[in-house]
Amino acid sequence: MKKWWNSIFLGNLFFILLAVSAILFVIGHFFPFYQTAASSLLLLTLLFTILDAIMLYYKKAIFAKRQIAPVLSNGDSNSCTLQVSSSYSFKTYATIYDEIPYQFNLRELKFDISLNSLKTRTLEYEILPSVRGEYQYGNIIVSVKSPLRLVNRRYEIEAVETVAVYPSFVNLQRYNLQNFRMFTSEYGIQKTRRIGHSTEFEQIKDYVKGDDIRHINWKASAKKNQLMVNQYTDEKAKQIFSVIDTGRAMEMPFNGLSLLDHAINASLALSQVIVKNQDRAGLVYFNKKVEKVLPADRSLSQVPRILNLLYNIKTEFFESNFEKLYAEIKFKINHRSLILLFTNFEDMNSLHRQMPYLKGIAKNNVLLLIFFKNSEIESVITETVESTHDYYYKAVSEKLAYQKRLMVKELNRHGIQTLLTSPEHLTSDTINKYLEIKAKAII
Question: Judging by DSSP bridges, how do beta strands 152-157 and 78-86 pair with one another?
Fold first, then answer.
């Protein structure tokens, strides 16, 4: 009853007519003619209001539904559609609100439309999620008026549903065969031999735990005083692991997404390229401990497995434990692999603390350390200096940017591959670096 009473008096025209009637009653105290006019206007207002209420409330005549994919792509534009129909015998005017999850940062989403009798209107809007996980849509609210515009009826249409925001999968097609063509002119096409049981000799390499002991080359082992094994062409499919740091260093935001989100999107696109290139893609993520190790696989079903694993990873506000990462990689990754480590260091001290573990990982694997330029610092460096205050900030920014370049040199000095890139170019730069390593036969 209360909701019905409130909805009756939501029409602005109703209040305007009441205000005019009240003014006429006041004037009619001095001029009797206006008293009669005020009474007539008030009576007509009440009669038309009752008629309008009957027209709107005699049946339920507004219907609405939402059409949205059950899985959304993080950091990309996703389409949502509302379909609203009217079974009234007259034209109506509606204001529509969709109760979207607050995490989508879309405020004041409403549509003011007209609905013809027995017609359906389709409304579309775009959402740009910036946080992965599961979120709940609410109901669809429709506030409708008749042509009289005296009464406003409120419909609350049940439309609760849950949607999942996954790492960016919309742009996976962008990172497909075009990336392979990028390196053919620079390094030449590397012919990938079919994986089988060929015994064609390729090279002698250091023995790593997990290698087939039947392939040990005893003569080479005696000369080098350590175990050496023959590598054959059936080992052409390489193991490529994306290792994602989910510690507090990856919480830094950029363009609405955290560095962790950028790393996850890049890992997903990279995994698809790895599988397309007949290599085996795997995944590791860690913070204060190693949370998950997904074994490398080259089947097409590996990319959906990685997608399902990545979609609900959250940043942990702890300092990441590289010592445990080193121990886990040494224990669980038996074959020599390419390790792409997504992390971030802001100064030399933080890098030096982790250097022993990075060198340990690189000893039996090819380690590519991927970390980020600070975009705000880069923008300060390029700005025009106009005051002493600006000089100070620019000097500090240049020093911090110089430290990043020093980190690259320090890592390269220890035989660790590096990629220092900006978040917006992370995916393309990472894929290009992987293809470069493959083309140069570093692994």
Answer: unpaired
**For residue 231, which amino acid is it?**
Q
Cβ contact 343:250 at 8 Å: yes
**Cβ neighbours of residue 396 under 8 Å, at least 6 residues apart?**
none
Q: What angle do CA 364, 365, 366 make, to 5 degrees?
A: 140
Query: Which tens digit of pLDDT belongs to each residue from 5-59?
Result: 444 444 467 677 777 777 777 777 777 777 777 777 778 878 888 888 888 888 8
CA distance 146 to 52: 7
By C-alpha distance, which of 99, 117, 95 is closest to 107? 99
Give every strand in the sheet of 71-73, ordered side by side: 71-73, 161-166, 133-137
CA distance 144 to 114: 9
The string of DSSP letters for 10-59 reads T-HHHHHHHHHHHHHHHHHTT-HHHHHHHHHHHHHHHHHHHHHHHHHHSS
pLDDT number for residue 236 = 60
- Please give the structure tokens belonging to residue 306: 């990685």
Q: In the 8-state DSSP scheme, what is residue 262? A: H
Q: Bridge-partner residues for 72, per DSSP?
A: 165
Q: What is the pLDDT of residues 331-369, one digit of tens each?
A: 998 888 999 999 998 888 889 999 999 999 999 999 999
Hey, what are 31's tokens? 């001029």
62-68: strand order across its sheet: 62-68, 78-86, 120-127
Under 8 Å between Cβ of 211 and 364? no
Number of alpha helices (DSSP H) and beta strands (DSSP E) in the chain: 12, 20
> What phi and psi, each to the nearest 5 degrees, are found at residue 252?
-55, 130
The neighbour count for residue 346, using CB atoms within 10 Å, is 17
Amino acid at 79: S
Residue 410 identity: E
What does the alpha-carbon distance between residue 278 and residue 90 come to, in Å, rounded to a whole number?
Answer: 63
Three-class DSSP category at 230: strand
Contact 142, 99 (CB under 8 A): no
Q: List the beta bridge partners of residue 338.
A: 240, 366
Please state, in angstroms and rounded to a whole number, the distance separating the CA atoms of residues 422 and 427. Answer: 10
Let me know: does 55 contact 93? Beta carbons within 8 Å: no
3-state class (DSSP) for residue 30: coil
